[in-house]
Amino acid sequence: MNTQNKYVPPILQVEPSTDCNLDCPFCFRKKYSQKGENINFEVFKKAVDQQGFRYLSLHGWGEPLMNPYLVDMIKYGAEKGFSVNFTTNATLVGEKAEGLLSSGVGIIAFSIPDLSLFSPDISGNIKYFHELKKQKGFTFPKTYINIAMMECNFDTVEETLSISNDLGVDAVNFERSYPWKPEYTKEEEKIFRKVNDFTEKTGLKITLPVPHTLPCRLFNTTLFMRYNGDMTPCCYRPDIVFGNINSETFDEIMHKRNIFREEMAEDPICSVCGI
């Protein structure tokens, strides 16, 4: 089976930890993991050593920096030729800044889904990271603010953009959150008109979600591996397991993934997902 050319999506997304130092009310973390656990480094390497992936995204249902070996994971992926990124709530970035700057990470996304949780400490950590990066003369990693669109933050997007611009990030990335309801789309259109007006005035770079497709772009571009080695369609579907990297071959896992792709339109959740 030619997995490299036919079956492997460009992005391998790995969940470094299901532990977190925040307790955001909208997060599914507790639904998908009752206790905080970190991925075993050997399990991580089994996935990263497979052929065909080009990008390594280190985030799932937890704060990646809760894993004490995250910097080592980034270095391992970078040494393998991956373009590595991870998403963080930024609470630990200040104390980890030195190691991260020398790790080879290409992009760090600071997740700000709810401004009520955006503290001065978080803002200070991001500013400190940028200052240290400038002091050391580094051009990488690039930094993004990641805004996961959901009903609770529709009215704070403009304020978040203003904060992002002040923090000096390279770009703001918007994505839709699950479950995405059809009635959200019209509101999203209004918000993005305001977003475009803001970027025209300030020059802040943004990326917006693409129209939904089936199979969705998330599935088409990404294979998600949980902390325990389970391979699933995406981070929102841990109930569907194509196999575990510890007990099944990569070809077997990708074969099951391909079958699911053909049947996705019949899946009661994926068929109406909308993100």
TrEMBL record:
Coiled coil: none annotated. Keywords: 4Fe-4S, Iron, Iron-sulfur, Metal-binding, S-adenosyl-L-methionine. GO terms for molecular function: catalytic activity; iron-sulfur cluster binding; metal ion binding. Residues 6-217 form the Radical SAM core domain. Pfam families: Radical_SAM, SPASM. PROSITE patterns: RADICAL_SAM. Gene3D superfamilies: Aldolase class I. The keyword Chloroplast does not apply. Its cofactor is [4Fe-4S] cluster. The keyword Mitochondrion does not apply. This is Radical SAM domain protein. It comes from Methanolacinia petrolearia (strain DSM 11571 / OCM 486 / SEBR 4847).
